[in-house]
Amino acid sequence: MHCERRMMNVEVCLLACLILTVGLTLGVGPNQNREFTFLLPAGTTECFYQTTVRNDSMEVEYQVIAGSGLDVGFALISPSGYRLISDFRRSDGIHMVDPTEDGDYRLCFDNSFSKLSEKMVFFEVIIHSQSSGGGGRDDQWADAAMPESIVEYKLKDILVRMDTVYWHLERSRQVLTVLRAFEARDRYLLEDNLWRVSFWSCLNLLVMLTVAATQIYTLRGLFDNTKQVCT
C-alpha cells in the first residue's frame, strides 16, 4: 500500500514537472509583437525599424488617438529601399507584408503637413514567424518525454492543446490592445466635443444676457421720460 502511494506521488511530481516544462517551452523565444504609443510633433517625421527574416509575414496596424484632425501620413519601406505602402492623412490603417525579406523594415509616420498640432500615435507590429512552428518545440518535448509506464498522458495532445490556448490568449491580448487604442481616441473626441459645446453654450448665454439687459435698459428709458406734453 505504501509502495503504491509512493508511486502515485512520483507520478504526480513527474506530471507537475512535465506541465512546468510545457509552460517554459511555450514562453521561450523572442517576443515577435511590438506595441508603442508616441507623440509626433508638428512638422516632423518619425521612423521606426523592425527586423525580419525571409519568408515570414508582418502585420502593421496604426491609429491616431489624439491631435487635431486625427490624421498622419504613413509609409512602409522595405530593406531594399522600395516603398511598399504609402498613406496620406489617415487616422488608422492595417497592412500586411507576406513574405518578408531579410533586414530592417522602416515604418515612417509623417506630420509635416501640420504646422501647429502634434499627434499621439499608437502602432502595433505582429510578426508571424514560419521558423517558430512546432519543430523546435517538438525537439524540446522529445527531450522532456517520460516513459509511458510512468505518465499515461500523450505529449502530443498536451502540446497541441496548450499551444492552441497560448496563441488564443496572445491574439486576445492583441485585440484588447487595439480596443484600448480605439477607446483612447474616442475619449479624446468626446472631450474635444465637450469643450466646444461648453464654449459655444457660454458664448450664447452671454449674448442672451447682453440682449436682455439692453432691452430692459431701453424699456426703462421709455418710461422714465419726464418731459411734459402739452394738451
Structure description:
- Residues 45-127 form the GOLD domain.
- Keywords: Endoplasmic reticulum, Membrane, Signal, Transmembrane, Transmembrane helix.
- The chain is α+β, with helices and mostly antiparallel strands and 231 residues long.
- Helices cover 46% and strands 28% of the residues.
- It has helices at 2-27, 134-144, 155-223, and strands at residues 33-40, 45-52, 57-66, 72-77, 83-90, 92-97, 103-110, 119-128.
- The strands form 2 sheets. The chain has a 4-stranded antiparallel β-sheet with strand order 1-8-3-6, with helices on one face. A 4-stranded antiparallel β-sheet has the order 2-7-4-5, with no helix packed on it.
- The longest helix is centred in the last third of the chain and has 69 residues, at 155-223.
- The radius of gyration is 33 Å and the shape is elongated.
- The model is unreliable at 1-31 (pLDDT under 50).
